[in-house]
């Protein structure tokens, strides 16, 4: 079954090359000096020799040791990427995160001085690549798509796969693919002198990659050399909390607030799990730290959120550096565990002026706002960065001395058997905790305050997190590989192979979509599907969505389905209610009124966006996107309609991209001038769009439990739509027993769905869902068991179901 490897691909080791070419670079004096302090720079010769003598090299060094910024420069100076050198192909560097691709390109460009314009980035919908580009930073997804069009990656002379320790699915797949392309290019270069071999450099911040280095199926030319750049990390003192509080947000707030008053100068980096937490904490910190403590307003700015204008705030004071804290450091080391500290009075100490700059950092933030953490701050101010995992390894934020780690992260979980996905806040791994702590020791000795106890750390933290490829549906991966004519996907050299069952399930779905033949070969439909940067199901909608003149609507529909969080959920509106409803002060009443108004505005917006159908979330997304295209001011529109500006702008970018693909491949389906400023779809078109959606998800259908052949007995009649049980066509509980509770076998409408607002008697019998999600298991005893919720796409009628089953 093994894919046959032509004998000429069997490369034992490539002949050593000589450094015959070099490019001169003029760096600014300060850049030059800073570089000399980086451990990776000390290893330049060793690294370059290894790269010359081996097709694949692995570099391991702690975060901040200079891998990302320096290794591409070594290669550049050695002539890689220069048109007249022996290795004219570009230097490609992949990153798991967009923000890292952009900011690292900028940094390396700055360091290279005059040669800076040769450094570019490319992320989805945004690129600075030009004919001059020699070093190209990109997300791993971009390179995977490039491979689909240029299997030998002829534009490149070297590929650097960075942050390999994160083990994202894309990175893992790239490692497998590029290792083969290295073999292929070696063979090609022996046939044709004009084709140069390709080098692969894998870089990692931890040793989490050693498990696959010796895998002969992956690296056929033998285990690649591992070069270590010992990080010169300053010591970081780690402080565990005595107790682990469940409300870690409150805990973070208290510690940061006190810490700001007590700790000597130095940036704060607070690790939280998501955007909501970050926004909430930013608001609270802003209120707390901007409240007058004898200071007076002088108009310094605190940025609390990307969507709000900078707010005015007062100067903040903190204790001088000789306060109790310094003693704590020597004694027990945690300023927060000394009870006396609670009475610490700022006014009693010599005040030093400090402004706070609160900067959020999470992936949904617009790129320009993400990059704010790199802007220099005025003297005497403290930066407080509130970040998700983004700041764990890919970005080195200058000036961080104190890390506050909540110890948790939001992780996508995936049940391989049932396909149920969940976003759960769970403990991070020990490896992640140590990475987070390490962020405090870049510029000098630092401190990490862990908001959890050492007992919890020892007991509940895994050594490493599971590779992502084991935690996701793999039909997209399988289709991608098949489109490269790899028939037996099980033979692909995955660093960690997904289990066979997932692969079989994926193949079944692809067969059902018509993308793969029963022999496992890609079909012409499959080739069509792989043209789109979408999951196979969404691509499928595009291939059938031209009927009834629907193509432009179908494109908008798919783009809105592909972008996750377009609608800002009601519970994020911050409709804080007055605390004492019985004794309304004027402010309370005003607040209450504002709350009511906002709520009714929200409902109104919701209603407007649902105007094409009250039973289809898919069409609501479509309406939002088309209305957005018509809106004269996008920002106002998003604000009024409670939509996420970033999600909307990305969805419309995706629309343009899809329109281009459709136009290039199927010119008859779209008129050249078409845009998203579409008239309202007709009734027939609305029905057709619902049908297209259903066709791609027909295996994900749930039937109203009370309408099923053997309706279950319910303890009481549900009064809300979100409590009404549906039974999925394919059971979610594989350990199903006769006496299983309804919660174990049924699925329920997600509160964010349009169907959540339908009266229970009007609920549709059949619902098509895009995915199932299980809530976080309750940790409180006696609490309700979490329900499995459907992200509903659309209701369908019995007639439609019958039609779909027949394949019409
Ligand atoms: P690694 O990839 O090994 O984690 P990097 O190459 O990203 O390390 O960073 C090396 C050093 O360069 C960091 O320690 C930091 O001091 C500096 N640095 C990186 N990016 C920036 C930036 N945008 N602004 C200022 N300094 C930076
Ligand atoms: Mg790096």
Distance between the termini: 36 Å
- The helix-and-strand class reads alpha/beta
- Largest β-sheet summary: 8 strands, mixed
User: Spans of 5+ residues with little confidence (pLDDT < 50)?
Assistant: 1-17, 292-333, 338-353, 575-582
Shape: globular
Strand content: 15-25%
Oligomer kind: single chain
Average of the residue pLDDT scores = 81
Number of separate strands: 24
Please state how the strands of the largest beta sheet are arranged side by side: 4-3-5-2-6-7-1-8
Count up the helices.
Answer: 26
SSE topology:
Blueprint: H1 29-36, H2 39-42, H3 44-53, E1 56-61, H4 67-77, E2 90-95, H5 98-111, E3 119-123, E4 126-127, E5 135-139, H6 140-149, E6 156-161, H7 169-191, E7 199-204, H8 210-213, E8 226-229, E9 236-240, H9 248-262, E10 267-271, H10 275-290, E11 297-302, E12 311-314, E13 316-318, H11 324-330, E14 352-361, H12 367-370, E15 381-387, E16 400-405, E17 408-414, E18 421-427, H13 430-438, E19 446-450, H14 454-460, H15 475-483, H16 500-512, H17 524-530, H18 536-544, H19 551-562, H20 586-609, H21 617-630, H22 634-641, H23 645-665, H24 683-696, E20 701-704, E21 726-728, H25 742-745, E22 747-749, E23 766-774, E24 788-796, H26 798-805
Parallel strand pairs: 1-7, 1-8, 2-5, 2-6, 3-5, 6-7, 9-19, 10-15, 10-16, 14-15, 16-19, 22-24
Antiparallel strand pairs: 3-4, 11-12, 13-14, 17-18, 20-21, 20-23, 23-24
Residues 67-68, 162 line the site of magnesium ion.
């Amino acid at each position: 079954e093994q894919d046959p490897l032509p004998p000429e691909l069997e490369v034992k080791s490539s002949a050593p090359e000589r450094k015959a070419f070099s490019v001169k670079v003029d760096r600014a004096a300060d850049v030059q000096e800073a570089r000399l302090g980086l451990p990776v720079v000390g290893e330049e010769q060793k690294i370059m020799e290894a790269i010359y003598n081996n097709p694949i090299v692995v570099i391991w060094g702690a975060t901040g040791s200079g891998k990302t910024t320096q290794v591409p420069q070594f290669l550049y100076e050695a002539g890689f990427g220069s048109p007249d050198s022996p290795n004219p192909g570009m230097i490609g560097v992949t990153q798991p995160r967009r923000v890292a691709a952009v900011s690292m390109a900028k940094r390396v460009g700055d360091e290279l001085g005059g040669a800076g314009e040769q450094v570019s980035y490319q992320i989805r919908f945004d690129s600075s690549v030009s004919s001059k580009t020699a070093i190209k930073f990109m997300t791993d997804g971009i390179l995977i798509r490039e491979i689909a069009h240029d299997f030998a990656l002829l534009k490149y002379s070297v590929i650097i796969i960075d942050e390999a320790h994160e083990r994202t699915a894309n990175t893992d797949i790239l490692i497998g693919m590029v290792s083969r392309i290295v073999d292929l290019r070696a063979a090609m270069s022996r046939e044709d002198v004009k084709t140069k071999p390709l080098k692969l450099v894998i870089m990692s911040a931890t040793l989490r990659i050693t498990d696959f280095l010796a895998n002969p199926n992956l690296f056929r030319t033998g285990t690649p050399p591992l070069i270590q750049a010992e990080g010169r990390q300053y010591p970081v003192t780690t402080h565990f909390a005595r107790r682990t509080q469940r409300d870690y947000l409150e805990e973070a707030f208290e510690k940061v607030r006190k810490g700001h008053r007590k700790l000597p100068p130095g940036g704060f980096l607070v690790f939280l799990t998501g955007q909501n937490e970050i926004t909430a904490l930013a608001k609270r910190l802003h209120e707390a730290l901007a409240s007058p403590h004898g200071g007076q307003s002088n108009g310094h700015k605190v940025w609390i959120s990307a969507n709000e204008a900078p707010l005015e705030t007062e100067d903040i004071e903190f204790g001088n550096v000789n306060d109790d804290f310094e003693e704590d450091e020597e004694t027990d080391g945690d300023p927060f565990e000394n009870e006396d500290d609670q009475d610490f009075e700022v006014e009693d100490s010599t005040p030093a002026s400090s402004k706070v700059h609160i900067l959020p950092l999470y992936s949904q933030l617009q790129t320009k706002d993400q990059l704010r953490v790199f802007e220099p701050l005025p003297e005497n101010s403290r930066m407080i960065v509130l970040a998700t995992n983004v700041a764990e390894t890919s970005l080195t934020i200058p000036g961080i001395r104190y890390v506050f780690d909540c110890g948790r992260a939001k992780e996508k979980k995936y049940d391989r058997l049932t396909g149920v996905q969940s976003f759960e806040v769970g403990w991070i791994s020990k490896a992640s905790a140590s990475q987070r702590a390490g962020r405090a020791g870049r510029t000098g000795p630092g401190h990490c305050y862990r908001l959890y106890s050492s007992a919890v750390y020892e007991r509940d933290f895994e050594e490493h997190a599971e590779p992502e490829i084991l935690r996701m549906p793999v039909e997209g991966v399988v289709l991608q590989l098949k489109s490269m004519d790899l028939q037996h996907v099980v033979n692909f050299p995955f660093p960690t192979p997904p289990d066979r069952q997932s692969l079989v399930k994926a193949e079944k779905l692809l067969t059902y979509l018509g993308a793969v033949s029963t022999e496992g070969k890609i079909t012409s439909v499959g080739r069509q599907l792989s043209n789109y940067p979408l999951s196979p199901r969404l691509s499928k909608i595009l291939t059938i969505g031209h009927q009834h003149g629907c193509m432009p609507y179908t494109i908008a529909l798919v783009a809105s389905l592909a972008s996750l969080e377009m609608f800002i959920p009601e519970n994020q509106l911050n409709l804080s209610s007055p605390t004492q409803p019985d004794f309304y002060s004027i402010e309370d009443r005003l607040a209450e009124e504002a709350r009511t108004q906002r709520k009714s505005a929200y409902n109104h917006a919701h209603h407007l966006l649902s105007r094409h159908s009250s039973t289809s979330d898919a069409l609501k997304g479509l309406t939002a996107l088309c209305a957005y295209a018509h809106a004269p001011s996008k920002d106002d529109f998003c604000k009024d309609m409670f939509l996420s500006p970033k999600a909307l702008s990305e969805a419309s970018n995706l629309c343009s991209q899809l329109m281009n693909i459709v136009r290039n491949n199927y010119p008859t389906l779209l008129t050249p001038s078409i845009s998203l400023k579409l008239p309202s779809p007709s009734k027939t078109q609305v029905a057709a769009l619902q049908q297209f959606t259903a066709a791609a998800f027909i295996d994900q259908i749930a039937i109203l439990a009370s309408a099923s052949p053997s309706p279950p007995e319910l303890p009481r009649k549900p009064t809300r739509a979100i409590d009404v049980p549906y039974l999925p066509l394919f059971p979610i509980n594989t350990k199903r027993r006769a006496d299983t509770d309804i919660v174990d076998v049924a699925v329920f409408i997600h509160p964010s769905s349009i169907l959540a607002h339908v009266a229970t008697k009007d609920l549709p019998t059949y619902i098509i869902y895009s995915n199932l999600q299980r809530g976080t298991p309750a940790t409180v005893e006696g609490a309700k068991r979490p329900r499995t919720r459907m992200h509903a796409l659309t209701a369908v009628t019995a007639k439609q179901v019958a039609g779909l089953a027949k394949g019409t």
